[in-house]
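Hey, resending since the last one bounced:
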Amino acid sequence: MQNKTLSLVFIILIFLFNPYTWIQFFDQDGYLKFASKLIILGLDLFFFISAIFFYSKRKNPNNQIVKYIKLASFNSAGILLCVIVLELIFGDWVGIKNNLDFFNNLAIKKNTYQLYNVDSLYDNDNKKILYKRDKFGLRGSYKKLKDIDILTMGGSTTDQRFIDEEKTWQEVLHKKSHLGGQPIYLANAGVDGQSTYGHIKAIQHWLSKIEDLKPKYYLFYLGVNDVWKDTIDLYSKDKILISDEKTFFERSIFWNSKIILNSIFDDRVRHIKHGNFSDNEINEWVDYGLLENYSFINPYLREYKKRLITLNKLVQKNGSKTIIVTNTNNLFKTVENKIIGKNTQFIYHGKMINGVDYGHIYKLFHETARLFCAENDIIFINLAQELVFNYDEDFYDTVHNTPSGTQKIGHFLYHSIKNINLDLN
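The structure tokens again:
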């Protein structure tokens, strides 16, 4: 009877602790990361096996708890031994060889040459566009690493996966400067989905490892990913180091695997994926938001500023200077100093917002960046506020630009750089 009761207890535990109940009753933001799902499912599997064990012994009058503890301990020891062996082989513990290069360089694509048909995103006369990254993982038409004046960093709006090599805003800027008689050479280190947190890791574990890569400026094109990433994580628990020293967790193959899995299967950024037309097709503009104030994001703004500080220190350590440029979104715009937005509603940090609210949130992040630049004598270009887009033609979804949009960005940045007499000597 006791064995049958224990079997029932483990079955109840499965119903109490599973990914669905965790999200419903224990998680604050209503989202469970992929690695956490695997852990909870693994725990459920343990409960299930335990339930089967005790149920199979239900007719045995002897107490099976001692036998169960011995069996569980033996298997746990075996699993722990396997973990230790895997960590010693693939982790970065012994100091002989860094076995985490694949993870530490963020799995950046290198020597990539791809053709895409983009007619499902924007009209391109059924012509395929070329996307390529060189042996260093960079895009751009620079000739030598030493020639690079500006290294651009950002997310997908910097990477521009579905814009041809000749039409990225970096290439537009380069061609414009060449015609102006003072060519500016750029390299594109944009990576889909990266926020400032990713930029820090990219400099530490990828770009700083490329010999002869000493750009005069790092240009960070910031906005959408930090707005959304900060909706999810403060990153305050992850100690970002400027030195090459690694934290205990950063040496672990399992910890790095967890980060990669969470990134691959993170569907929380569905609002910023390529070709998301659901919001883009809403044409009704309104001048009112759904929220009365936005003080709830103050903690996230503070964390954002901390990451900007760390980024600038990394840039200075490399002997370079920082440029921060703001990006924007076609769910809102500013008309006569007033934010108006599309009448679409979605969840942001557990709150229902619309395009107007989204515009105010963007503005707060950009203002944080502006103040940081003013305090530290850093070049700040407020593209989001100063550049006027055609919202029907310059975006193929809510955030990503068509070639007409990238052309406007390239021209705008060229004239901005020219007006501030950027020192490229």
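The chain has a mean pLDDT of 84.

Sorry for the duplicate.
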